[in-house]
Specification:
The protein is an all-alpha fold. It has helices at 14-42, 47-59, 67-79, 82-105, 109-140, 146-172, 174-180. It has one domain (14-54, 63-180). The mean pLDDT is 89.
C-alpha cells in the first residue's frame, strides 16, 4: 500500500483563456447577425436584392416566389417585430458575450456568468424570434424558400447553445473553476 499518495488538483489557467478566445469570435458572429436583423427590420431589401435572392430558389422549379410575396413576408415579420426581437436579443447577447470573454480571459468569475447570461438571452430570444419569422415565411413564401427560414431556427439555436456550453464550462469544470477563484491561504497562528 502506497503511503503519501495524493491527488492534488491544480488550477487550469489556460483552459478558461482558450474558451474566452472562442467566445470572442462567437460574440463577433452573434453581433454581426444581430446587426443584420436590425437592418432587416429598419430597411429590408431593395427590389434588386430580392430578385437576386429569389433567382436560385425560383430556378429549381415549382411555384416561383414573387417579389410581392417576399414583400408581404417582410411586412408581416416587421409588423410582428420578429426581426427587431431577434436583433435586440442577439445584440444584447453578443455584447454580454464580448464583455464576458474579456473578463474570462482575465480569469474573472464574473466573465463566465456574463457570458452564460448572454448566451441564454440569445438562445431564448433568438430562437423565439426565428420561429416567428419562420411562421411568417410559411404563410407567404413558396416551398423552395422555406428551408432557408427553417434552417435559421436551427442555426440560431445551435450557435447560442454552443456559446452557452462554452461559457458555462469554466463554472462546471473543477480545474477551470479553481483558476477563476483567487487562492486564499489561511494561516492559523495559534502559538503557545
Amino acid at each position: 500500500m502506497e503511503e503519501g499518495l495524493s491527488l492534488d488538483v491544480k488550477p487550469d489557467r489556460s483552459g478558461p483563456k482558450n474558451l474566452a478566445i472562442l467566445l470572442f469570435f462567437g460574440s463577433l458572429l452573434v453581433l454581426w447577425m444581430g446587426y443584420a436583423d436590425l437592418q432587416a427590420h429598419r430597411f429590408g431589401l431593395n427590389d434588386e436584392q430580392v430578385e437576386t435572392l429569389l433567382a436560385t430558389p425560383n430556378a429549381q422549379g415549382g411555384e416561383p416566389t414573387t417579389v410581392e410575396d417576399f414583400r408581404m413576408f417582410e411586412d408581416e415579420a416587421r409588423s410582428e417585430n420578429a426581426f427587431l426581437l431577434r436583433a435586440v436579443s442577439l445584440l444584447t447577447s453578443g455584447g454580454l458575450l464580448l464583455v464576458g470573454c474579456v473578463l474570462l480571459y482575465r480569469l474573472k468569475r464574473l466573465g463566465a456568468y456574463l457570458s452564460s447570461a448572454g448566451a441564454l438571452i440569445g438562445l431564448f430570444g433568438g430562437v423565439g424570434a426565428s420561429i416567428m419569422i419562420r411562421s411568417s415565411a410559411r404563410s407567404h413564401l413558396e416551398e423552395t424558400l422555406l428551408p432557408t427560414y427553417e434552417a435559421w431556427v436551427y442555426i440560431c439555436g445551435s450557435m447560442m447553445g454552443l456559446c452557452l456550453a462554452i461559457a458555462a464550462l469554466p463554472l462546471l469544470n473543477l480545474r477551470a473553476s479553481m483558476a477563476l477563484q483567487p487562492v486564499k491561504l489561511v494561516v492559523n497562528d495559534e502559538s503557545e
